[in-house]
Amino acid sequence: MSKIRKSLRKAIIASGLKSGMTVSFHHHLRNGDFVMNMVMDEIADLGISNIRIAASSFFPIHGKLVRHIKTGTITAIDCNYMSGPLAEAVTNGMLKKPVMLRTHGGRPRAIMDGSLKIDVAFIASPSSDKMGNLNGVRGPSSCGSLGYAMPDAQMAGKVIAITDNLTAYPNGPISIDETKVDHVVVVDSIGDTSGIVSGTTQVTRDPVGHVIARHAADVIEASGLLKDGISFQTGAGGASLATAYHLREKMVSGGIKGSFGMGGITAFFVGMLEDGLFEKLIDVQCFDLDAVRSIRKNPNHIEVSASQYANPSAKSCAVESLDVVVLGATEIDTDFNVNVLTDSSGNIMGGSGGHSDTAQGAKLTIIVANLLRARLPIVVDRVTTKVTPGETVDVLVTERGMAVNPSRMDLMKSLKEKGLPVVDIVELKEMAEKMAGKPRKVSFTDRVIGFVEYRNGEIIDKVYQPAKE
Amino acid sequence: MGTNLLFIPGNNPSMIQNAGILGADTVIFDLEDAVAGDQKDAARMLIKNALESMEYEGCETSVRINAMDTPHWESDIRTVAKAGIDGLVIPKAERGEDIKAISEILDSIPEAEGIYLIPLVESALGVENVYEIAASSKRIRGIFFGAEDYTADIGAVRTKGGEEIFWARGRIVNGAVAAGVEAIDTPFTDVEDIEGLRKDTFFAKALGFDGKASISPRHCGFIREIFYPQDEEIRYAIRVMDTVKEAEKSGKGVASMDGKMIDKPIVLRAMKVLRAAGIKEDFRYE
Questions:
Q1: Which of A116, A409, A419, B188 could form a cystine bridge with B197, CB 3.0-4.6 A?
Q2: Distance between CA atoms of B33 and B146, rounded to whole angstroms?
């Protein structure tokens, strides 16, 4: 017996996909993904239309989907992050329905509770056998963890696995097992490896980033959380990953061993695991080849589903066990609300991803950001779009000082006692405006082009279409 | 002036904007080598505007003007001297009379009263004339050695080991101390080689330099850490001074500590350590 279908077209037909249904994709192949475009081309070719496309994220390579919006093949989008031409098209109002913007934890919540019903899940699989036992760690297009695909596999009406690496039965290891897969399609290539993972993600060389990162590491130390058993997560680049670098130095000099690192896993975190600074890594996605190698070989590098990572409706999830998270921001306002979705002109260029999940879950949430990016102050009166609520953010660390949320007087006292440069967030804003001037207010139309859903399902903001200049 | 001086390209608005938070004791806004010939005026205005509108609370500010054999140097001085800088770095310093000329221009600008000079000695003739240069003006705070141009001038191969500049380094320190000013060592140009930087900086300190320049913000913290006296050095220096003062009070001609006589060089070394640590010491060795 075999679930292999002779072509993608035949698999789609066999799945019973019809106009008006919802299809889903994961984003583990990131900007090297061929599968989403391939599938939507085929769906369009079959004359199926009015499709809601629910991908965990969209990248510039998915810009080809814009023509499917124009033709009416795609009429709704559901995702946690979007960038590139597709994001531009949505910002410009091309999509009839507002895009639903969720979090990495909110998406599996919605899938599990039925509010995001997936009719057909297309799972790009670096490795699959004829019965649909899948993993992301073998094959020419290895991407590592398949965490974002797991809720889809579990709950979708039909599941089609698309692979460029068919193995003998049974495949091993197994991230998504055959009991969840209906059809398997073999293609020449599921993605461009250079866009799937980077060679190695590097710690930034930007000196200002390191000033910020050193301060952030000092905050963690002053908080009292830097001790044996600490767990933390940082972003994959910039001052966020540089904080891990400086924290590592403190851990080494203090003889401190962490319990786990989490993410978004990079070579840097793999190095910390292999050097004995963490007991375990919890991995919902791999960012580089070292992370892929490690998850393949090291039993202490654990693949988790997006649901286990951050689903707030699950019995528990990993973000709730996190001590420290270090995150970025495109904007932060004087109530500590954070925007990571739109730029200062109102264009969609990102999304929560795991931002608001980890911010709520972690004991200490640190936002690291340059006070000024070129001429733009990062601290504003009100964020253009609220993605992470201020009550879940503890500290903003910039190169010119740090601001502590007034709800954390305990932390403020500790930081001041350690002589750290604590200033009021309004003072930081004024400092930036003194250097760069007060930014011009951007105007918007009344048209809603997106809903920002918080991880618990509540709509916490709307995205409005920027007015044309 | 401090122990670490960081070069900031004078045509880089982002670095100029952030210069005050990069960890240097003094930033040197560079109008010379970092700026192309047809951009000199634009860079000059950029620095002037930055100095007038930014607050550089964390450090002193200085400007490396263009050399006196270019048409730019005097405009450089007259523009930035009114903008609130702390010091000027004078490249290709070879003669005391050139420094005197610059000093006289500054004397004519009321806003330039407190501006100090750091002649950059980077040629064979400059090294030969170092004492004359260092003693040429009361405005001089220190002598800065530039090894890259110096080794090109004498035809030596520049190495990380620094054997080719050993003599010149010694002469710079000697001339500076003789004139009562500080000596600043040449930058370590391999940005990535932190171990090499450490070795080079420790050696410079051992030779008697008071600080070191750098071309990368990454180096500032390491340089400061090495030049700042270690706790043991400070404790020892305090003991020396206490012992000497005690001996003086009790009318003893000679002080001794740990079975050894404390003579003038030991006292002077102790005073230098305490000065570097920022500890005030009014003692005069008679």
A1: B188
A2: 12
